[in-house]
Design brief:
disordered N terminus, rod-shaped, mainly beta, Ubiquitin-like (UB roll), Barwin-like endoglucanases
């Protein structure tokens, strides 16, 4: 049994084969037979290839075993899909200093709900004056669902391709009616002889021109700028009513489409058979009929009964 004089214990190794332990001033020789005379193995160096890999927005260095690019990516635990682009090719052998790039490519589907434009169709109307056009049917856009396949490269959209389109609501064509009826050319004064004037003819209109309108034997004006033929209706209004131009409504002030006959135009109006001579008139009003295009002029009468009696008739409108 040893009696220790100090609590400190020191062990000094001199060689692999033996050791001397100094314990409390006493020396003991310990022989390490288990490790004596064993050869020391030299440390072996692990060989590898230094490369860098760019993928998913970052570039990192790697020391990898020799092999192909595909094997290098597997060692680096970088997954590659069949759509991804790898450079150099995955079957190429890696070498020191190589830089491998993985470009991520993926596809998504997107759905867009949008408008389908309407088409414009033109039809001809022989009863409408040539050069005149009217929108008979307003176009209405349709709607549909379109599906696209979108290609992304490293998170950025680079292209899209339509794969399907489904119509939810069919568009309505816009129909435009074009007039083809040729208007009568204004004859020269030499071919007509004035036999009377508007002042000598009984007319519906209470207006009088500054100079009487000269009329031929058929009751048609001898001199005018243009002749317009079309349909006429009749209307009346309560006392004190005003026209679109602000005038007090009265016989002689007629309603027109101002795009065809401008406000303020001086007119002489009669039926072709001469049964109704409305007489001298001025374009001072308009109405909903103008948008429909089936009526050319709306004539003002004093009473509702007169309007009913007139009804709908063909008229000749001489623009003075």
């Amino acid at each position: 049994m040893f009696h220790l004089k100090e609590k400190f214990i020191k062990v000094t190794k001199f060689r692999i084969g033996a050791a001397v332990a100094v314990i409390a001033g006493m020396a003991c020789t310990i022989t390490a037979s288990a490790v004596a005379n064993q050869p020391v193995k030299a440390q072996q160096r692990v060989s590898g290839v230094d490369v860098s890999i760019t993928a998913d927005g970052e570039t990192l260095p790697y020391t990898l075993k020799e092999g192909t690019v595909e094997e290098a990516l597997r060692q680096a635990e970088i997954y590659v899909s069949q759509d991804d682009l790898v450079y150099p090719p995955q079957d190429a052998q890696i070498q020191d200093g190589d830089h491998i790039t993985v470009t991520r490519i993926y596809y998504t589907q997107e759905t867009d709900i949008g408008a389908i434009p309407y088409e414009e169709v033109e039809i001809e109307n022989s009863a409408m004056a040539k050069g005149r056009t009217v929108v008979s049917t307003r176009g209405v856009e349709g709607s549909g669902v379109t599906t696209y396949q979108v290609k992304h490269v490293d998170g950025v959209e680079v292209s899209r391709e339509m794969v399907s389109q489904q119509v939810v609501r069919e568009p309505v064509d816009q129909v435009i009616t074009k007039g083809t009826k040729e208007e009568k050319a204004a004859p020269s004064a030499a071919k007509k002889t004035a036999v009377t004037s508007s002042s000598a003819v009984k007319t519906v209109s209470a207006l009088s021109p500054s100079q009487p309108v000269q009329l031929d034997k058929n009751g048609d004006p001898v001199s005018y700028k243009k002749l317009i033929t079309g349909k006429a209706t009749a209307y009346t209004a309560s006392e004190g009513a005003r026209t679109a131009t602000g005038k007090l409504a009265q016989t002689g002030y007629v309603a027109v489409n101002p795009k065809q006959i401008p406000y303020g135009s001086r007119l002489y109006i009669k039926t072709p058979d001469g049964k109704v001579i409305y007489g001298y008139a001025v374009a001072e009003d308009t109405g909903g009929f103008a948008k429909k295009g089936r009526v050319t002029v709306d004539l003002y009468f004093d009473t509702y009964e007169e309007c009913i009696q007139f009804g709908l008739r063909s008229v000749e409108i001489y623009v003075l």
